[in-house]
Amino acid sequence: MHLQAPVVRRTVGPLAASQPLRAPRVVAQRQPQALVGREQTSFFGATSLKAFTQSPALRPAKFSSRLLVEAAKKSVGDLGKQDLEGKVVFVRADLNVPLDGSTITDDTRVRAAIPTLKYLISNGAKVLLTSHLGRPKDGPEDKFRLTPVVPRLQELLGVKVEKTNDCIGDEVAQKVSSMQNGEVLVLENVRFYKEETKNDAEFAKKLGAHAQIYVNDAFGTAHRAHASTEGITKHVNQSVAGFLLQKELDYLDGAVSNPKRPFTAIVGGSKVSSKIGVLDSLIAKADNIILGGGMIFTFFKAQGLSVGSSLVEEDKIDLAKQLTETAKSKGVEIILPTDVVIADKFDANANSKVVPAGEIPDGWMGLDIGPDSVKSFGDVISNSQTVIWNGPMGVFEFEKFSKGTFAIADVLAGLGEKGVTTIIGGGDSVAAVEKAGVANKMSHISTGGGASLELLEGKVLPGVAALNDA
Ligand SMILES: Nc1ncnc2c1ncn2[C@@H]1O[C@H](COP(=O)(O)OP(=O)(O)O)[C@@H](O)[C@H]1O
Ligand SMILES: O=C(OP(=O)(O)O)[C@H](O)COP(=O)(O)O
Fold this sequence. Notes:
Elements: H1 48-54, E1 62-63, E2 73-74, H2 81-84, E3 88-92, E4 99-100, E5 103-104, H3 108-122, E6 126-130, H4 149-157, E7 161-163, H5 170-177, E8 184-186, H6 194-197, H7 201-207, E9 213-216, E10 238-241, H8 243-257, E11 263-267, H9 272-275, H10 278-285, E12 288-291, H11 296-302, E13 306-307, H12 317-330, E14 333-335, E15 339-343, E16 352-356, E17 359-360, E18 365-369, H13 371-382, E19 386-390, H14 403-415, E20 421-425, H15 427-435, E21 444-446, H16 450-457, H17 462-465
Helix pairs in contact: 1-3, 3-4, 10-12, 10-16, 11-12, 13-14
Bound molecules: adenosine-5'-diphosphate and 1,3-bisphosphoglyceric acid.
Adenosine-5'-diphosphate binds at residues 3, 6, 268-271, 293-294, 311, 366-367, 390-392, 394-395, 397, 426-429, 449.
């Protein structure tokens, strides 16, 4: 969630104008899925979080996202005062918010966590709340502390929220022992321990040491089998889904299991290695795949084009080649930008110019899609009936490189009136549409980018699978 300059890698190979990959398409229709409690409205829009907690659809005894799990899963809404009062409840949320220093630039994920927290507080639980923030590499780092979310949580919850400097250990034990019913204690970033992402059993046990009940409300991280999303469930009495997780699954499952067609997926952003694998199954599901952001340069390099010092995942170049071939053979369109905005350094005030996509000079890097690409992407998007978008088209945090992202956001915003389903997923993508002022025009704002893409793949999300059956 912190801006990172692309790794500088020199490109060798022929200079050539890039061509988007276009071909006729054949896509098999999937069968409709029966669903429970789905609502076809954005829950961050006008109806917002209040309606979310009050909606009867969100208090079903069971819910089931059949793309993901065999059995229906238990929800926090199944637990009443008799189950929660005086109990220590460990809540794993996704509070991985975009930050500018210590300022939260988009609080969507914090707001999204509120309904579950309010429900637990009002039922007298002692709430231990934790999350990851960013991807710290080697232990605690101040810039990855959860400190900035505490005042915002306090404001939204209307109760005092305390925080520890660690997520396990003596300080946590001591603070938990003096907690009163209805209090909230934030535990520090779980990724300060490498054991978190390794799903280490001992670490998971320590995380769960004080809690009787585990609530997973971290949809954005449900595709990770980590100690706080999966391992911990083995060390508590019961594990249930939070309202956000439930809401996301119910909505997305319906929207992507039987999408209205043409179905277009837009994939951008900078988590190339996390997301490039998803394209394989998208080829089987979507009619059009539009690529932007940092995703594109690995594809351009795979075509032997010049990418300068743009973000490239060298070890994914072969995969990019394969994906291009697979798409061609299946008749699916993978649409790449034809022009890009380049910069002479990774900086808001860098010199910039627009060049054909495959002609980035050495020392320059692509930080946005260009105006011709905006137009051709816009044409494809405007002819779609379902659009899912994860990953900004450029470094939208810098004004100079934000135009492509905001232009695509505007195109999507205009489709709502025509009844097109528009789904935006991912911390930064949501921040971008919020910044563009069009979030309330989308059908669904999802707190998970990678998670919603994996859902789209039909993969089992480990954070969901680990919960108790209803
Ligand atoms: N061409 C690019 N080069 C480097 N970074 C980029 C580029 N385009 C977009 N980004 C960055 O990608 C980040 C978001 O990526 P990602 O985490 O994959 O999206 P999301 O959070 O929506 O899932 C943004 O911070 C943006 O600045
Ligand atoms: O921001 C997130 O994912 P996203 O960018 O795919 O939406 C989640 O917090 C998961 O973070 P991770 O991709 O570092 O595991």
